[in-house]
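Study this fold:
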Amino acid sequence: MSGAADDAVFMRRAIDLALSRMGETWPNPAVACVLVKDGVVLAEAATAPGGRPHAEEQAVPEAGEAVKGTTAYVTLEPCGARSSGRKT
């Protein structure tokens, strides 16, 4: 596959994960995160029932130290509550 084709596959996986949680995550949206490194999925998660924990909060620890250098395919911008405030 090409880079764009790989991106489409991993983003589709994230969308499917998020859709699988529709109606279960109120008051938060159903979001999914797929972490990929060198074409391999290291971790994936979706917002838990009840809205917590968020998808990223689950996927990053699951990937562990291997998270460095991954690409995150996320169906909504990552939660800003814990961010440094940077937008880049």
